[in-house]
């Protein structure tokens, strides 16, 4: 069975549902109608542009262009991590820590999956590399952002408790141990919930897309299991690195809590 083509007017029918929802929100005075419409418009424009870029990239298929695309995606993800924090580290540390953690985790897991598991020829085949990296970066970005936000907010809210434990002689790692655990838990919870509900409560997006495009369900399931495990590894390592580096940054060499290294962010 072939893929059923979608025309622009059919997409417009789907968009009308979002417009109808925004109208209901506006009439209910919930204050989210504008944000919903803006997000829908951004989705359409961004995905349309990405489609054009990917078509050009697939036709070229060279490693430098794939690496450039991956670098741009990484930098944008790092910016999103920084923007989602209520209290961010000063001096660009939030951007640097988030970007570095995602580079080490998401890129490493992507390359390992391409080379050792999927094995396309060449290994950087854009058809596999870019979608896989995009899924890992998107989920790792969420985990890193949640972990950093929970860490900084927790240290700010419990600063007196942490400082009291430091004065009692505890090392910084133990003084903020509970906050670090909560930060890691916050970063990992979305992917844990997704894996727990996959196939029972919901069909994951990649699997659904493959089935709609005509892929055999058995093959789609194998790819989805691979992607879920890769996302879990990338998100876990990324959140662990980000929380570890950021928590160390908030204590100096004399093991004093340095909340002066935190600024304020607008958050989202």
From TrEMBL:
Pfam families (UniProt xref): UPF0014
Protein localization: Membrane
Keywords for this protein: Membrane, Transmembrane, Transmembrane helix
Transmembrane annotation, as ranges: 6-28, 63-81, 93-116, 128-148, 191-213, 225-246
Top-level taxon: Bacteria
GO CC list: plasma membrane
Topological category with respect to the lipid bilayer: Multi-pass membrane protein
InterPro entries tied to this protein: UPF0014_fam (IPR005226)
Recorded family membership: Belongs to the UPF0014 family.
Name of this protein: Putative ABC transport system permease protein
